[in-house]
């Protein structure tokens, strides 16, 4: 039988996740139709920001829908069609944020290096912890259950370390847009977009922390 505590946890985490997603979507839609006064596409802005900070050998790719990311393995930035070819505030903010990650990589930003170092462990833990937990509970093996919780803690650690990486990339993006003379109103819009996107990482970390605390509480019980 599912406990009332776990049902409450599900409700709270769902509310956090859905609330964050709604806010992000509303901010993105608001500025999707607002053009930047520089008349540049996201790809243009990305190349110019890389040149401004003296970061070379970073390829800019056009990706699929929703594919906006920096890949340190190939040293490349991938932008979704809307961000790559779009001239909106959302496109500009998105492109600058991803280039912020490229700058972090080029400059050896410590939190990014830490996050990269624990990726292999996270890949293993994120897929295995739930199975170990279920087996540990079914077979009443305390050691296996604890191993599952430790694995999940590694996943939570990764999400926590991700926060300064994302915040710093957004700060770099805002600093660049201010430097190139983007009007204050457009800077405010770009900040609104970046803040909303950062909220998804905060929400993910918060829900994971709550889940971990619940698991530890069950362990003590």
Percentage of residues in DSSP E strands: under 5%
- Helix coverage percent: over 70%
Structural class: mainly alpha
> How many strand units?
3
Broad shape: elongated
Query: What is the CA-atom radius of gyration, in angstroms?
Result: 20 Å
* N-end to C-end Cα span: 16 Å
Detailed description of the structure:
With 221 residues, the chain is mainly α. It is 76% helix and 5% strand. It contains seven helices and three strands, in the order ααβββααααα. The chain has a three-stranded mixed beta sheet. β2 and β3 form a beta hairpin. The longest helix has 38 residues, at 142-179. The protein is elongated and about 65 Å long.
List the helices and strands and how they pair.
Blueprint: H1 4-32, H2 42-52, E1 59-62, E2 69-71, E3 76-79, H3 81-85, H4 89-107, H5 110-138, H6 142-179, H7 184-220
Parallel strand pairs: 1-3
Antiparallel strand pairs: 2-3
Based on the model shown, name its key terms.
221 residues; mainly alpha; 7 helices; 3 strands; 76% helix
Concise summary:
This protein is mainly α and 221 residues long.
